[in-house]
Amino acid sequence: MKARLLAALLLAPLLGACATKRDVRDLRDEMAAMRAAQDSAFREMQRQNRAMLDSLNSQNQRLRGDISNRFLQVDRQLVQIQELTGQGQQRLAELREQINTRAQQEAARPAEGTTPAAGGTAPADASADELYNTALAALRRGSLQTARAGFQEFLRAYPSHALAPDALFYVGETYNEAKDVQNALTTYAQVVQRFPASSKAPTALYRAGTIEAGRGNRTEARALFNRVVQSYARSPEATLARDQLQKLGRS
Q1: Percentage of the chain surpassing pLDDT 70?
Q2: HSE value, Cβ hemisphere, 13 Å, CA-based, for 210
Q3: What pLDDT, on the 0 to 100 scale, is given for residue 88?
Q4: Are 188 and 168 in contact (CB under 8 A)?
């Protein structure tokens, strides 16, 4: 009896060790299987993502190509306008005629994949927006003459467009940034005169006031700031004008 009990006690650790090793081996096999499944799922996700990105990139490249071609055409026209400055009205008139012809062609041709708008006005508006945005981009990168020529051509071709007040205001900005004070003041005054109800009117008045204040013309500056306060009391510029009036003194 004692011998059997002793044998059982000696075999118990050995059996436990075997079970522990088998459990570890089984656990390792399960982990390897899970890892392989995860790797497979991850590779499939990567493949799907690459396919989706390739499709989006292809569509984006086509769209950017179409837009770039249009902007390139407009930018070339603007460069030509800039180069022709001072070379005679006849050549400039010829260039404007070319621009008008291209605008008419764009207006007559519906955009690919779209239904032509009534009266064919949508393509014309698109051309106007392109010309405006190209001029604005030139202003933002500091190409003042190119921007001015673009905005002036926009105003000539689209005098009644909703962006006309903005275009005229930015013409004034090109003069202001070029330190051409007199032309800047004249242009700002035209904004107020031609588009008194636009949001750019109080901005133009305020900008003119700051120019006069900077030149030491306190009387003219006060008059301009007072016009902002009286005529455009609810505009953001009215608050700025009141601050300027306090600095200048109302007397």
Answers
A1: 57
A2: 14
A3: 44
A4: no
Q: In three state form, how does the secondary structure of the chain look? A: CHHHHHHHHHHHHHHHHHHHHHHHHHHHHHHHHHHHHHHHHHHHHHHHHHHHHHHHHHHHHHHHHHHHHHHHHHHHHHHHHHHCCCCCHHHHHHHHHHHHHHHHHHHHCCCCCCCCCHHHHHHHHHHHHHHHHHHHHHHHCCCHHHHHHHHHHHHHHCCCCCCHHHHHHHHHHHHHHCCCHHHHHHHHHHHHHHCCCCCHHHHHHHHHHHHHHHCCCHHHHHHHHHHHHHHCCCCHHHHHHHHHHHHHCCC
How many CA within 13 A on the CB side of residue 56? 6
pLDDT bin (cut points 50, 70, 90) of residue 20 is low
Q: How many CA atoms lie within 13 Å of 226's alpha carbon, on the beta-carbon side?
A: 10
Residue with tokens 């009990």: 5
pTM of the model: 0.54
Nearest-angstrom CA–CA distance, 127 and 109: 12
Q: What are the tens digits of pLDDT across the range 221-251?
A: 999 999 999 999 999 999 999 999 998 875 4
Place of tokens 């030491």: 216
Q: Is there a contact between 79 and 146 (Cβ–Cβ < 8 Å)?
A: yes
